[in-house]
């Protein structure tokens, strides 16, 4: 089967499934009335653990995972799976240390927490940042990749695929809120993981002459470079889009190319810089995504209670370990089957077409339509999740705060619906601009990385640095984007994960230093009448010892900043001066020293963290240990 030629049976199955999901979503939206803000934005805080875990994965494994990661697997190999594998351990940490604080505060949004810990200005600025990021990066890229898959398999023009995804996402998410999104997610994750497994089974069986395990062994033997988990500075890959353009002499738009010979060979290390996937910038990417990203964490906020939320997150962590089987291996297998062909004549002209090509050629009749339908529906679900979270932030953090503070519950729901529709339309309008972006998964990581180091710093120090002030947090969030852009321009050869680690160190330094000069103690606030009787009583209760909090912050600095500096010293990056590694090390040591020697009084809005808050049940502890052991085995075996 050629691309753009989905068979009749598969087309019928595809259409039937999509219509079925739309009908199911509309039924849920009408059955589960969303008369209050809690109903619409947090599903009445009633989700069981399996719905939390399933919805987390369905929202996560969308176009940028299935299509984008298979595209990266096609060109780079299995190393891209680090985003999935390390996410499993990150989810455990988020469930252990982040969720207890968020659920204790009973918040709707991440900006709400920032006002509770810092002030309203920090909340507002981050609300605007997040809305812009969701609309112009997340929603736009997912819609684009979904439309690309539709174009590749159905032969439908990109613009019509975008329109279709907008209509699908709007059909139930705008009026049904989070409940409709989550319950359709539960269906999607089952069918998507089944369909992805079928796709992987199909192509790996071809590579292995009927055996999946033989297929994996053949790939490992024939393409050892595609099974490297930690790249070296000299490792490269073939950019298929550039190779095709150089071979044909024209751009995708039919214009003469301006690429020079050699532009098709790019650095693997720049995208996935070795040990940074285990220590360093990867922790920023994953911790921000799973711990501070509204459209992800919103599922856990909607759980019945903390133990239920933690069980759901642990369930999602186990599923993450399986995802590379169908989100990376099919892309590698596609490269194995096509690697000998002339780039000008490949059926794949860009990396992100690898998975649709696998579906078109190596999945049985009927299953192709089902798998493709589940993929497109999951893309729509992810868009719905992002749209719902965008509307949640706009309604709770912008509209309720500045436009109509006394809005009724019904009015809040209506504003949420209108803002959801606006976010969807704007994201769709931006989507076509990504048509020449190459590996879109990497584009998402790169530009999200402009904001994530500062955001993660503000949250981590908000949890565990009792002296952190609103003024320091404000400087950090405002400085994150310009600092990231400046270092991208000044040191273009520094891998973006390393750049994120450096911005994290600078942010931590700013947080500590500025807080020392802008602090306002609890005693001062209490003297001014800043606390009620209950809050004054809680001040005297037992809290986690300050030295333990300092130890936790130091571990973060060591694991992200110091580890990056040592790695750059032992594994120099071409184009990056050796002095950069020294700067990393010195800056890390300075931040650690400041953390331990800081004698200023606690900030008046510091969170009192009690030991009981972080106690977890035995089942969760066993799950966490199992995940750590599995990750250790995987990396040891592949190394």
Radius of gyration: 24 Å
Count all strands and give the number. 2
Helix content: over 70%
| Low-confidence segments | none
Q: Percent of residues in beta strands?
A: under 5%
Please give the alpha-carbon distance between the first and last residues.
37 Å
- Which H/E pattern describes the elements? HHHHHHHHHEHEHHHHHHHHHHHHHHHHHH
Number of continuous helical runs: 28
Describe the structure in your own words.
The model has no long low-confidence stretch (mean pLDDT 84). Strands 1-2 form a two-stranded antiparallel ribbon. The chain has a domain at 440-521 and 538-608. Helix content is 72%, strand content 1%. The longest helix is centred in the N-terminal third of the chain and has 50 residues, at 158-207. The protein is globular, with a radius of gyration of 24 Å. The chain is mostly helical and 639 residues long. The protein has 28 helices and two strands. Its main location: membrane. The chain crosses the membrane at residues 12-29, 49-68, 80-103, 124-146, 158-178, 185-204, 271-291, 312-338, 358-379, 418-435, 447-465, 472-490, 496-514, 552-570, 576-597, 618-638.
In short:
The chain has 639 residues and is mostly helical. The chain is built from 28 helices and two strands. It has a two-stranded antiparallel ribbon.
């Amino acid at each position: 089967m050629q691309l753009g030629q989905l068979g009749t049976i598969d087309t019928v199955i595809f259409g039937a499934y999509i219509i079925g999901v739309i009908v199911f979503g509309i039924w849920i939206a009408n059955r589960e009335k969303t008369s209050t803000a809690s109903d619409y934005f947090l599903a009445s805080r009633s989700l069981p653990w399996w719905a939390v875990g399933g919805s987390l994965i369905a929202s996560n494994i969308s176009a940028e995972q299935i299509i984008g990661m298979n595209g990266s697997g096609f060109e780079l190999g299995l190393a891209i799976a680090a985003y999935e594998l390390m996410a499993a351990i990150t989810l455990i940490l988020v469930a252990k240390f982040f969720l207890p604080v968020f659920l204790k505060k009973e918040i709707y949004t991440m900006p709400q927490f920032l006002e509770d810990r810092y002030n309203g200005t920090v909340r507002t600025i981050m609300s605007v940042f997040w809305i812009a990021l969701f609309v112009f990066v997340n929603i736009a890229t997912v819609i684009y990749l979904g439309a690309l898959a539709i174009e590749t398999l159905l032969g439908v023009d990109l613009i019509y695929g975008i329109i279709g995804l907008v209509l699908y996402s709007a059909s139930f998410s705008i009026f049904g809120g989070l409940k409709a999104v989550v319950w359709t997610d539960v269906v999607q994750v089952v069918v998507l993981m089944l369909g992805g497994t079928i796709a992987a089974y199909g192509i790996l069986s071809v590579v292995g002459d009927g055996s999946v395990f033989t297929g994996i062994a053949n790939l490992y033997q024939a393409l050892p470079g595609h099974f490297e988990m930690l790249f070296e500075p000299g490792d490269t890959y073939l950019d298929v889009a550039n190779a095709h353009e150089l071979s044909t002499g024209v751009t995708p738009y039919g214009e003469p190319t301006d690429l020079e010979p050699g532009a098709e060979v790019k650095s693997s290390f720049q995208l996935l810089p070795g040990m940074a996937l285990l220590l360093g910038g990867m922790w920023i990417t994953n911790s921000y995504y799973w711990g501070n990203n509204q459209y992800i964490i919103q599922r856990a906020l909607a759980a019945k209670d903390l133990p239920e939320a933690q069980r759901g997150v642990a369930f999602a962590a186990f599923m993450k370990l399986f995802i590379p089987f169908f989100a990376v291996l099919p892309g590698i297998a596609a490269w194995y089957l096509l690697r000998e062909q002339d780039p000008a004549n490949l059926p794949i002209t860009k990396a992100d077409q690898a998975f649709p090509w696998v579906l078109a050629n190596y999945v049985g009749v009927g299953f192709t339509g089902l798998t493709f339908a589940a993929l497109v529906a999951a893309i729509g679900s992810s868009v719905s999740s992002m749209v719902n979270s965008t509307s949640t932030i706009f309604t709770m953090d912008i509209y309720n705060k500045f436009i109509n503070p006394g809005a009724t519950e019904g009015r809040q729901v209506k504003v949420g619906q209108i803002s959801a529709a606006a976010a969807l339309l704007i994201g769709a309008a931006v989507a076509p601009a990504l048509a020449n972006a190459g590996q879109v998964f990497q584009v998402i990581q790169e530009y999200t990385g402009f904001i994530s180091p500062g955001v993660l710093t503000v949250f981590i120090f908000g949890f565990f640095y009792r002296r952190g002030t609103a003024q320091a947090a404000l400087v950090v969030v405002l400085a994150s984007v310009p600092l990231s852009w400046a270092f991208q321009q000044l040191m273009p050869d520094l891998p973006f994960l390393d750049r994120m680690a450096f911005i994290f160190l600078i942010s931590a330094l700013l947080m500590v230093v500025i807080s020392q000069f802008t602090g306002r103690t609890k005693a001062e606030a209490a003297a001014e009448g800043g606390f009620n009787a209950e809050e004054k009583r809680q001040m005297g209760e037992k809290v986690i010892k300050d030295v333990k909090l300092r130890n936790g912050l130091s571990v973060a600095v060591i694991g992200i900043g110091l580890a990056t500096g040592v790695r750059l010293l032992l594994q120099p990056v071409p184009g990056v001066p050796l002095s950069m590694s020294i700067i990393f090390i010195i800056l890390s040591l300075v931040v650690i020293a400041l953390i331990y020697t800081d004698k200023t009084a606690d900030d008046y809005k510091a969170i009192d963290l009690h030991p009981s808050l972080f106690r977890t049940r035995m089942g969760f502890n066993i799950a966490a240990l199992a995940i750590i052991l599995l990750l250790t085995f995987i990396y040891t075996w592949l190394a």
